Amino acid sequence: MKAPPATRADYAQLATHETRWKDMDPYGHLNNVAYYELFDTAVNAWLIRAGLLDVLHGDQIGVMVESGCRFHSEIRFPEPVTSGIRIARIGTSSVRYEVGLFAGDSAAAAAEGFFVHVYVDAATRRPKPLSDTLRAGLSPLLSGG
User: Fold this and answer.
1) Residues 94, 114 contacting (CB under 8 angstroms)
2) pLDDT at res. 1
């Protein structure tokens, strides 16, 4: 049996995003690619705002190695979307982020996705253990998934 969609309360951080006309597909809803763009934007924007990611000068970056999504209901332009993020697992050099997307003021997630970042040295692109600063900054979002 399919698990019910998560609610906003299931996520540690929430942010609102605007949908775009170009996100629509011929079926009248956001194309699946737009969902993945919203997942990526939600997590990376939070990391940057929290001071945990410096894309231009940082010595450690996250590289995506796995992702997935479960769709529950449609999202349509011009509906705003709220993203919720949480962390299911923090490893030695990897993090599993989970993101819920909520259409308009809906309490239930329209889609739930995840992706795993392996953190690497920005210059060599080789896996590198999470810095103490990064680990400490991520820990408050740890949920148990």
Assistant:
1) no
2) 73
